[in-house]
Amino acid sequence: MDAAFTEEQDEIRRTLRELLHKRCGPDEVKAAVRTPQGHDEALWRQLAQQLGLPGLALPAAYGGVGCGPTELALACEETGRALLPSPLIATAVLAAPLILALGTERQRAELLPAIAAGELTGTLAVPGGQLATALALTGPNDGDWAGGGRSGGIQARPCEGGWRLYGEAAQVLDGHSAGVLLVAAHTGGFARSRTPLFLVRAEARDGATGGPAATGTTTGMAASAAPGPDAATPGARAATRRLLRIRQTPMDETRPQARIELRDVPAELLGEVDGGETGSGEAAVAAALAATGASAAAALAAEAVGAADAALARTVEYVQAREQFGRPIGSFQAVQHRLADLYVSVQAARSAAYYAAWSAGGGRSGPHHRAEPGVGGLALAQALETLRTVAAEAVQLHGGIGFTWEHDAHLYFKRAACDELLLGPVHRLRARAAEEAGLFSGTTREAVGV
């Protein structure tokens, strides 16, 4: 493994850091998260048009830059450093790779160039708060991870000209603003139970009636539930069809989330008609989700490392300026030891994130081989734990002002807490990584290809 970055990779990092330093300070972050979209749309367009950020890891044939997981991880490290509120993770890290892996040529040609240009955003909606399991990060995704169509999940039923979805999913990243939703929904009943992915456009149209499906977005915690898909008459069914997107209020406002409610909403199967009784379609979906999870873990780990590095830098700057007993508190040995430990933790987490990105990109096996088992989950666990530790120490070392909820240090503390709730917990990430690597089955050497 060559640990040195290329000139192109260094330029991606440098250019993005300079731009975000000018446009994404703490005050700008706090202002952006309070907009209806939850991010600065002008800045997002600039990142897309000047740097090609949404299409960084997409092939040039679809308007992308043609880079890989390593470049995307470097970009995410810089966005994490600035705590940039943007649809980058939901769109470029989750939705785009799945469309590329599973979509038909028509679907890829229709969606990916618009994503790469920054004209379209997307996200992955998984019911039951099972995002980490769906990506095979905290458990196997070859079973009933999407609820099996039971209450609280999403059900899909075929109809003339496509599919209809009914159900809801919470904690959907940027779900209130995404232009296209990739929805995991259960279909096939008991005998042929499977969970494919479906495309739902934010401006979905009702093919049966020719009119627009009812859609809505609100910031409240609840909305009146529409009647079920089996209303008395066709007219009643058309009247109740809607996609309701309710923006939630998470502790970390820089990571907008929404609850998606689908009431007999028209949808399109992502990819070709699946494998029916053979189950090959379900296997392809599970494999694509796992591959996406490996690269997503590397990107999210790098993002957490960037946030931890920025929090540490702010803390070091503060202890050098804050005086106690006539001298800077940074000169006290106890403070220096704590900061040194944090520095070592950040550097170790950064190395793990870089290795995970390199592995997700093919590593020593080449770009067409799957990532080394467990590497992404371990890197993500280490990065999340490091960010949590650094953020907590930053709050404490800032003293009385650091405990003020409005202080900038709490932006990092909130990011650490909410990311672990969304993607963890850390011990489950590590347990799954150990299981993938075969550490407790006596097959370690075969699992890692040694």
UniProtKB/TrEMBL annotation:
Pfam family for this entry, one: Acyl-CoA_dh_N
InterPro entries: Acyl-CoA_Oxase/DH_mid-dom_sf, AcylCo_DH-like_C, AcylCo_DH/oxidase_C, AcylCoA_DH/ox_N, AcylCoA_DH/ox_N_sf, AcylCoA_DH/oxidase_NM_dom_sf
Composition bias type Low complexity, residue spans: 211-235
GO molecular function terms listed in the Swiss-Prot or TrEMBL record: acyl-CoA dehydrogenase activity; flavin adenine dinucleotide binding
Keyword Oxidoreductase in annotation: yes
Segments of this protein annotated with the region Disordered: 207-235
Key words, A-Z: FAD, Flavoprotein, Oxidoreductase
Acyl-CoA dehydrogenase/oxidase C-terminal domain sequence ranges: 298-435
Domain of life (superkingdom): Bacteria
Family: Belongs to the acyl-CoA dehydrogenase family.
Protein name stated in the entry: Acyl-CoA dehydrogenase
Organism: Streptomyces piniterrae
Lineage of origin: Bacteria, Bacillati, Actinomycetota, Actinomycetes, Kitasatosporales
